[in-house]
């Protein structure tokens, strides 16, 4: 068959809360078995050392910790629904999310795709306990139980549209699920498949069955193929793998743990008992798997056996393996079983074994099999060409083939043949391009979740010692999609870990480095004018960022034919000639062109542009109004022609309004208003003697003034002698209508289908720079972020004088700024809602996926059923939630009655003059009852669907509860109610509207 890649793994087994811990448990031959937790049942009550009927012969088993913990808020599941859900559904939801992340995919990115879900499950004890308690059956209990829902719940919450089904073939369920998932990929029913298994023991029922059938181990441990073997010990766990066709995984550069080469499933048929293993069927399923994989038995290095530790089961399995491998005298088949570490995880047994084999192939070592030191002599392993793994088996570097068996108690057998992954593509050596500094990102539904995951990532970063660029690139792709956005630049992993921990520990830092964008951002680029230049401007960025370096080189090449020397070299060398107008203007143009193009290449695409004086030239290129070579020719001519003008001109900044200053120079033919930068910021330009007279008058009147250090009187009548020669060049260059909106500082407004042509650029020289007018118009359009494009920030300060404005971003604050400051700007924009082109941030060698810590779910909320199975009929189960210091819920019982003035009611009704209105109180109480929310958990802005997890069933119940409480309103119709369920506040407003026209409203509101 076509090979299938395992690209993502997550699991949770006894003594191993995650995949990393699972591998550690296996490598140290750890024991996950312990006493039955009191949360499940009172094991002592059912224990009988003699194995009397109706009792168990053990008080031990392999149990996972905290199966009652569930981060319902993450999945927008109401507390009432979470309480009703089978814990197996909850575990699978969280494990599936983490497995998809481990595959290098953002789980939200799968929404709407044909991704399939295949779940193996054998027990449904939660349903047995709840669906037989008829007095407490609710709609949530119905949807919270049932085998199908274990798979369907995953598809629903991740919005997956591919096949979604649960499989029960007893102990082989999850390996059969993998078999079905692989076939669905091969038939192209889906392109990605999640396959897994789960088992949670809620009652002692199976323990009693195993004891009565003579299959239960007294110490609760499986001892596969060992002389100590004395039966089955029960185990729990959950595991999920992400599968893709190998060719697709390799094409997308995904990490591949191992490859499924062939799978097969068959049945015992009518054999020596429905629960008894059948050697011949097992032999045939092995042969079928080998045929599909295209391998010979001699190719198989090791097999993860079913290995339950029962006399008959182990014997049949060894004989079936020996049929195929008995001739291997020189190189016996290595055999082990993870059940020795965990117990028999029943519906999750196949996935537990699959993950063990995949990790063994990935790490190139097979862990020793627990209890293998004393093999069962009656099995005659050596005669069957088999040996138990008494020590870890180091695997060779070349391709290795392994097998995995999982046999169902009812006779459905499965076998899989796996192989080591093909050699990973060599990491590209190409370090061209890229920003130069990594930007690590993380998202979460809330601030607490963000803190929790920052710590988890910091721990992982410190432990892994992987390249910071590759880690950050992976975070950009995988850790996305939630409301809270965190981003920080880092040059190495030590700095990254430090910044992650700092943000988690300090609320002020977290507030600064995280954002909650409410809408799509509108970003404006503001291009700085003359006066912001300095020697070696952006030299640090040029040195560190290949991306910026390429664009500055491009601008320099365009300018060189018109300047006669390299503007780039002049700037980087620290030449003071950069202050001469002839070089200032081309140098600023080159730097600003390169900065704007760099940000654009990084995915920061402006919705508006504004340039101050010569800043408009780089803006015009980005807007598509001028080609690069045309703009380079114009700016070079402009600077050279101005440099040729005679000395004798100057500029004066005046702290006064434009109108007042303009009146002052009305009778001065050699002086004009050069710029209007703010309400109290006007610049005059012209003849030095005239400026001196005006300065003296203004100073005498108490008006503050400041001489500007310039070579010429820009934007003044003194520019007249150069206009004709410049116009000739401008006519040849031409100009088009901007494709990106440009707020012109020539006109002080938005250009509307007006070309930035020769006429525009000639007027641009003498006309005043109407920055304040243009910027005010820009702000009125709702810009959310202003990014200053220039060697140092100048315009953002002017922007603040115009009143409350957008968030301000500074990519280059000074001459020492390197790529870290530009990375900080990208991070700030991301926090504000911009979605950068992350590939452009990194050189090709860093665009390689790396393992990140999986999402750290909250364990604050606990949901469990306090059923105490007994030999005598009980008065009926009472569902309660486990309590923690942070959260106490009673989820199946009615929600607590509202306080006299419910917090949400007080906020909702105060504007109507009714601080404790009956309508609002009834609405909030009804929402709380339906969802299982306490009084302090509801507020007006909460959305019923997105925040509180309401669905159509809950809406119908809400309707009924509202009608019960608000009898005077008459019957509510669903058609009227649905459009008004966006938020609790909207619901209350709607009910007030109905109440205002209903009979008797005066009495209710008096």
TrEMBL record:
Keyword rRNA-binding listed: no
GO molecular function: 3-oxoacyl-[acyl-carrier-protein] synthase activity; fatty acid synthase activity; phosphopantetheine binding
PROSITE patterns from the UniProt entry: CARRIER, KS3_1, KS3_2
Gene Ontology terms describing biological process: fatty acid biosynthetic process; macrolide biosynthetic process
Carrier domain segment(s): 914-995
Domain Ketosynthase family 3 (KS3): 1-420
Pfam family name, one: Ketoacyl-synt_C
Family annotation (SMART domains): PKS_AT, PKS_KS
Keywords: Acyltransferase, Antibiotic biosynthesis, Phosphopantetheine, Phosphoprotein, Transferase
PANTHER family xref list: FATTY ACID SYNTHASE, SI:DKEY-61P9.11
Protein name in the entry: Acyltransferase domain-containing protein
Organism of origin: Streptomyces xanthii
């Amino acid at each position: 068959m076509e090979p299938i890649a395992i690209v993502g793994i997550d699991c949770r087994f006894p003594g191993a809360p995650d995949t990393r811990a699972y591998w550690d448990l296996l490598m140290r031959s750890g024991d996950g078995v312990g006493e039955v937790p009191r949360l499940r049942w009172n094991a002592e009550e059912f224990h009988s050392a003699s194995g009397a009927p109706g009792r168990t012969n053990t008080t031990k088993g392999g149990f996972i910790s905290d199966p009652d913990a569930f981060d319902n808020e993450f999945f927008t599941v109401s507390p009432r629904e979470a309480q009703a859900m089978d814990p197996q559904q909850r575990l699978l939801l969280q494990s599936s999310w983490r497995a998809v992340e481990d595959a290098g995919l953002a789980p939200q990115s799968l929404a709407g795709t044909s991704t399939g879900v295949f779940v193996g499950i054998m027990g449904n004890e939660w349903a047995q306990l709840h669906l037989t308690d008829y007095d407490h059956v609710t709609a949530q209990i119905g949807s919270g139980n049932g085998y199908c829902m274990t798979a369907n719940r995953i598809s629903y919450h991740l919005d997956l549209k591919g096949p979604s089904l649960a499989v029960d073939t007893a102990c082989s369920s999850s390996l059969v699920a993998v078999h079905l998932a692989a076939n669905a990929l091969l038939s192209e029913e889906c392109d990605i498949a999640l396959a897994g298994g789960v088992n949670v023991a809620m009652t002692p029922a199976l323990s009693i069955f195993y004891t009565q059938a003579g299959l239960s181990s007294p110490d609760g441990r499986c001892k596969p193929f060992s002389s100590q073997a004395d039966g089955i010990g029960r185990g729990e766990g959950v595991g999920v793998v992400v599968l893709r066709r190998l060719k697709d995984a390799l094409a997308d550069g995904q990490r591949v743990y191992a490859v499924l080469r062939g799978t097969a499933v068959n049945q015992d048929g009518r054999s020596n008992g429905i629960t008894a293993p059948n050697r011949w069927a097992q032999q045939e399923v092995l042969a079928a798997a080998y045929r599909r994989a295209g391998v010979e038995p001699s190719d198989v290095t090791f097999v993860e056996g079913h290995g339950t530790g029962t006399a008959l089961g182990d014997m049949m399995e060894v004989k079936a393996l020996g049929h195929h491998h008995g001739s291997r005298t020189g190189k016996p088949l290595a055999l082990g079983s993870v059940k020795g570490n965990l117990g028999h995880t029943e519906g999750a047994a196949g996935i537990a074994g699959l993950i063990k084999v995949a990790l063994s192939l990935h790490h190139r070592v097979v862990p020793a099999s627990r209890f293998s030191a004393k093999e069962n002599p009656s099995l005659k392993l050596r005669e069957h060409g088999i040996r138990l793994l008494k020590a870890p088996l180091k695997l060779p570097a070349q391709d290795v083939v392994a097998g995995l068996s999982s046999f169902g108690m009812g006779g459905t057998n499965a076998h899989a043949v796996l192989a080591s992954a093909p050699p990973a593509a060599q990491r590209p050596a190409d370090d061209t391009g890229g920003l130069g500094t990594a930007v690590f990102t993380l998202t979460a539904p809330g601030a607490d979740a963000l803190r929790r995951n920052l710590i988890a990532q910091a721990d992982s970063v410190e432990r892994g010692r992987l390249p910071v660029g590759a880690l950050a690139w992976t975070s950009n792709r995988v850790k996305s999609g939630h409301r809270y956005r965190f981003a920080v630049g880092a040059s190495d992993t030590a700095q990254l870990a430090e910044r992650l921990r700092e943000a988690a520990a300090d609320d002020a830092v977290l507030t600064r480095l995280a954002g909650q964008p409410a809408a799509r951002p509108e970003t404006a680029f503001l291009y700085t004018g003359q006066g912001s230049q300095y020697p070696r401007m952006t030299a640090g960025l040029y040195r560190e960022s290949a991306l910026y370096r390429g664009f500055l080189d491009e601008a320099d090449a365009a300018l060189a034919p018109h300047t006669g020397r390299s503007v780039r070299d002049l700037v980087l060398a620290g030449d003071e000639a950069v202050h001469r107008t002839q070089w200032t203007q081309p140098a600023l143009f080159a730097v600003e062109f390169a900065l704007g193009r760099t940000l654009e290449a990084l995915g920061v695409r402006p919705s508006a542009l504004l340039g101050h004086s010569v800043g408009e030239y780089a803006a015009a290129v980005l807007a598509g109004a001028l080609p690069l070579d045309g703009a380079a020719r114009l700016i070079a001519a402009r600077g050279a022609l101005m440099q040729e003008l005679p000395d004798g001109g100057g500029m004066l900044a005046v702290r006064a309004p434009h109108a007042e200053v303009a009146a002052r120079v009305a009778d001065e033919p050699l002086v004009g208003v050069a710029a209007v930068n703010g309400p109290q910021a006007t610049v005059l330009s012209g003849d030095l003697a005239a400026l001196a007279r005006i300065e003296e008058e203004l100073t005498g009147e108490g008006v503050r003034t400041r001489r500007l250090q310039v070579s010429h009187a820009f934007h003044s009548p003194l520019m007249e002698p150069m206009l004709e020669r410049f116009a000739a060049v401008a006519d040849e260059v031409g100009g088009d209508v901007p494709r990106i909106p440009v707020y012109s500082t020539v006109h002080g407004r938005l250009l509307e289908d007006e070309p930035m042509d020769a006429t525009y650029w000639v007027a641009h020289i003498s006309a005043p720079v109407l920055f304040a007018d243009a910027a005010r118009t820009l702000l009125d359009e709702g810009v959310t972020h202003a990014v200053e494009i220039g060697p140092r920030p100048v315009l953002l300060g002017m922007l603040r004088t115009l009143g409350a404005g957008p968030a301000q971003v500074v990519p280059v604050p000074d001459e020492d700024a390197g790529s870290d400051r530009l990375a900080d700007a990208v991070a700030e924009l991301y926090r504000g809602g911009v979605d950068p082109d992350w590939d452009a941030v990194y050189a090709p060698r860093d665009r390689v996926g790396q393992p990140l810590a999986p999402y750290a779910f909250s364990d604050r909320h606990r949901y469990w059923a306090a059923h105490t199975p007994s030999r005598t009929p009980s008065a009926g189960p009472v569902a309660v939630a486990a309590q923690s210091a942070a959260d106490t819920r009673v989820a199946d019982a009615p929600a607590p009655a509202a306080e006299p003035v419910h917090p949400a009611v007080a906020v909702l009704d105060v504007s109507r003059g009714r601080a404790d209105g009956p309508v609002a109180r009834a609405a909030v109480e009804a929402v709380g009852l339906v969802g299982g929310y306490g009084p302090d958990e509801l507020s007006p802005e909460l959305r019923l669907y997105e925040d509180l997890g309401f669905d159509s069933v809950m809406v119908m119940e809400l309707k009924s509860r509202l009608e019960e409480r608000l009898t005077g309103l008459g019957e509510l119709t669903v058609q009227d109610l649905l459009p008004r369920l966006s938020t609790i506040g909207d619901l209350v407003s709607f009910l007030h509207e109905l109440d205002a026209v209903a009979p008797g409203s005066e009495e209710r509101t008096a």
